[in-house]
Design a protein that fits this description.
Length: 408
Amino acid sequence: MSPSQKKLDRRDFLKISLIAASSPSLLTACGSREIRVLARRNPGVTPAQLKIVEFYSQRSAIGPPPSQELLNFVVHLFSPEEAEIVQYLPLIKGKKGTSLQISPRVKLPEPEVEAVLSRIADQKRAIISFEEPGKSKQYGLMPIVPGTMELVMMEGKNDDWHRRYGQLFEDVYNTGYIKNILKKPIRAARYIPVQETINLVHAALPSDLLTDMLKEHTSFGLGVCQCRQAKSFSGHNCGLPTDTCLATGKLADFLVQRNIMRRIDRSEALETKLKANAAGLATMSMNVAFSEPVISCSCCGCCCVILRTLNQFNTPGLIAPPHFTPRRDESKCLKCGLCQSKCPMGAHSLSDKGWSFRRERCIGCGVCASICPARALAMEPVKNYQPPPINYKEFAWQMAPGYLSYVL
């Protein structure tokens, strides 16, 4: 058998996979045919804007396939002049993402390129920037989620441009592309039980308690819930608190320095989260130990991008299995229906036939147990619970199988 006829072994396949992963253009969700179709249907769109559509549709960026909804989103996000520059940015961060590198490619003076990039990063928040002493400022494009959507909406601006942005994001999200991404679990987020419901449970760990999360850090930032903001711009306002998005540690410093979040202290952070819990919002954290810098949201089932993957698309792969689920004492139950109305996941149901509970929908947030007036619900530990990864390296390894199954 000649070398050219040799079958690929596992090592060869791994090499090919690594090459593909290092070449994002090979990993688009669809391909150039869809881009050409969009170009024919939208003659006023520039090649640079179409290139950004293709960028967002990369599998490595967890992107949606090219579509009219995605194109509308990009055209709103970047004018033709901005797109001419932005099209050359790398994913997140890289040496090629400086105005000095991009200037000769667009045939514009470097200060002019820098001014455009700075405006998009600091005013629109549509790209991310990194600045280190003695080095040129670096810029990068982010995935739509997580990334662009959050940074653009986190300041809570309410003007025509942001309202239209929220509507266009909803159009992209509602295409349902997330279903294809989450065919295998990624488990990027977990829900922290309402503290009062597990304080006395012997199985509770430090990673289950909100106060322990806050004790680990001295730096905190608070921003607007991007999900409820975007949903309200699309005509749905659930009326729940919006100033609930919390960052800790270096993440808080990064966002506060860019005026995306405001600086708060530990006591205000705890007060904010407790009020959100009392309003029926579920406390979410990135699925990593509290000692790491994290983003912590307070989520409702109707607006939250993560919870809607289950509520709207029946795809739970973003959410780690819970540590606790509720147990009901029938003798105490008043059949008031509060658990049904407040549960963000619709796990509780009360009808003429009685109470029922869909365990597979439970995220372990403890909202139901905390609002039950008769204390008929109590949180109990789930068998074979796996604690969150101890750091971001372990977090990445945990996510890798689900992520790579989608990318490759």
